[in-house]
Amino acid sequence: MSRVVRVAGGQGFWGDWPEAPRRQVEGGPVDYLMLDYLAEVTMSILQKQKDRDPSAGYARDFVGAMESVLPAVAERGVKVIANAGGVNPEACAAAVQAMASSAGCAGALRIGVVTGDNLLPRLDELFAAGHELRSMDTGEPLATVRDRVIAANAYIGSTPIVEALAKGANVVITGRSTDTALTMAPLRHEFGWGAADWDKLAAGIIAGHIIECGAQCSGGNCLHDWRDIPNLADVGYPIIEGSADGTFVVTKHAGTGGRVSVRTVTEQLVYEMGDPHSYITPDVVADFTTIQLEDAGADRVRVFGIKGAQATDKLKVSIAYKSGYKAAGSLVYAWPDALEKAELADRVLRERLDRLGLKFAKVLSEFVGASATHGRLAGDAGRHAPEVQYRIGVRDADRRKVERFTREIIPLVLNGPPSVTGFAGGRPKVEEIVAYWPALIDKSVVQTRVEVC
Q1: What confidence score (pLDDT) does residue 191 get?
Q2: Which of 82, 345, 346, 376 has the fewest CB atoms within 10 Å, counting from its CB?
Q3: Are strands 387-396 and 239-242 parallel, antiparallel or unpaired?
């Protein structure tokens, strides 16, 4: 019988279920635990934290997750791979080591730290070398917002993670790794897949894509038959059972809630898919149209037939920059005529803002419960909603104008339409807007580093 490597997904984003990592290592046999914490907005949040405190800038939840799985790592040899390092992988590793020392388990951990993805300190150097980092959306060079950039991280692939595992790390912490590389790296390491094994690498990427969002592929957030998904309170997170030939099975621990089926896996596959013929990663270009799925038993889906092609010579860079300020507030209007009351409140508020001379870069009104989700498709049904949340938001480069807006919505409670509630939160809060700037850069410019201690 061919050897199987089990990679368990334990986090799909920063803020996912804290119990999931422990449940994954205690619920049955697994070889690796993959924890995915990062999204584009997360990087900017972490950079702002690091700016305030040089010892911050990583997903602090990871330290608690590691504490919960320490026995499995120390006693059973489960290895952990996470992109929890954010913009400060070294500090993340130090925090994990400190936690393990206090638990008397420091000697059981060999932590591999992958760095080199953070391009923020190098931006001026890159500009001087001719790398314009033009926006993939608008084509503008990054220099147009250089003074407002707060984070710039290249998406790195599986190669440095494989290097860390080869050096004996049983915990690997990265910065802005691709989500898929966290699963593909252990399969590539265990089976010795080469840099030109395109089909196998593509299979590893697809495996990673399927479990990168945690329980979203095992019954959570499931559109089809959501009423019939069993025992979501005890939902099982996904596990990949990978084989050397690139085929794998998606499953979960026996006795857990949720469901793994062709339908649940298919729903996750189309998440953030883009061009199905060319799913581009730093390691390989995967062809989603070649994926074949088949039922392999209760809560087991076999995935096979995947084809891949050579990777491009570029890496994607996730850049965040300051883009003004925003504030949003809401009031809830009750039956009868809830939508009509909310619409009147909107007209009244906008008229008052006009009289004050407050012109904003953008104003957006929504009527949640009537039309915010479906817009015009709601039709007459929205007009008869028994309650409607009126939500209005503004954005502008001038913080003082946004602050003035925050004082105008709450007075509607007594001087606007009747039957209002939902104002217990008080005045809206002004928030700084962090905008997203995707760009490409030559792979040769990004040099990763791996240290194991």
Answers
A1: 98
A2: 376
A3: unpaired
